[in-house]
Amino acid sequence: MPAISLFEPYAMGPHKLANRIVMNPMTRCRADADGVPTPIMATYYAQRATAGLIVTEGVAPSANGRGYARQPGLWSPAQIATWKPVTAAVKAAGGVIFAQVMHTGRVSHPANMPAGGRIIAPSALALAGQMYSDAEGMQDHPVPQEMTLADIASTQAEFVTAAKAAIAAGFDGIELHGANGYLLEQFLSPHTNQRHDAYGGSVTNRIRFVVEVAKAVAAAIGGDKVGIRLSPYGMASGMTPYPEVDETYLGLTKALAEAGLIYLHIANHAAMGNPPIPAALLASLRAAWPHTFFLGGSFDLASGQAAVDAGESDLVGIGRAFIANPDLVTRLKNGTPLAAMNGDALYTPGAAGYTDYPNA
Description:
The structure is a single chain. Helices cover 31% and strands 16% of the residues. It has helices at residues 39-47, 77-92, 149-168, 183-188, 203-206, 208-221, 245-258, 279-288, 301-309, 321-324, 328-334; strands at residues 10-12, 15-17, 21-23, 53-59, 97-101, 120-121, 130-133, 137-140, 145-146, 173-178, 226-230, 263-267, 292-296, 315-318. It contains eleven helices and 14 strands. The chain has an eight-stranded parallel barrel with strand order 3-4-5-10-11-12-13-14, surrounded by four helices. The chain has a two-stranded antiparallel sheet with strand order 1-2. The mean pLDDT is 96. The protein is globular. By secondary structure, the protein is of the alpha/beta class. Helix 1 (39-47) runs parallel beside helix 2, helix 3 (149-168) packs parallel to helix 6 and helix 7 runs parallel beside helix 8 (279-288). Strand 4, helix 2 (77-92) and strand 5 form a beta-alpha-beta unit.
């Protein structure tokens, strides 16, 4: 078969992508203290709109879901209103943009949360280590409150409300963040989910919360506007592999496919020292998924093209290279050397290390 160029357009359901290169979601912490997007965020995303698809940084669906300093949200009228210039700027530049909806669960601290926010998780198990807050510096992770059945229902509703808000704010769709040790993945792992009710214990029970969230969101805004990111074998935020990893993710993938989601995004963190995802599992996930399937990891042009040529991925997710190279797609196409990022300014407020990188 002839090679399919990464630079050719791709139809992801109703979404017409200019190419097969995805800008992966990356935490950047440029919202204000209330989670309201700032004007420089519109500049940042518009600068990178030549990506076939942009997936934003993790956006909190509620006060309970906001774990990081200056993490944007999608629950208040001010947040929704100020996302509109961001999505308008991307669309004016010809881009397609999905909001990554991310509930941090136990990966949080009260100093980063609005008044009244509660740190909740499947089980009352604290994440080891510390996290940064603007107000108090580095702080230990508190023990989260174990979610009641009422909490589970209300949190699912928060995901739905946030998804509707994203569409109202002009996003083309949303990505559920089921990776990196945040709330959805906390339900999947027996190390963080030690419940004894319908949401814990067996694989079927541990995937239930994620499946219910996905189905509810798809019913609310349409499955063709919903993707999900998963990270089997990932070790971010205290996650560790467990014997049922393959069974868990294959069962989850099949259930999510029935929910009608438009894409499955698998984050492979092997280049960051995590265990590699077994090739057999990736092949099984790919075979079980009827729509767009793509991998996100440390791809360059050659490895990304090889993954598409081999049928392993429909799209290629690239993260950090987009930070210092707003014109990354053009640079890759022309063979232009890539600029290096300012690692000291990844999460600092302001334009430095954010919108001040020039095109080639």
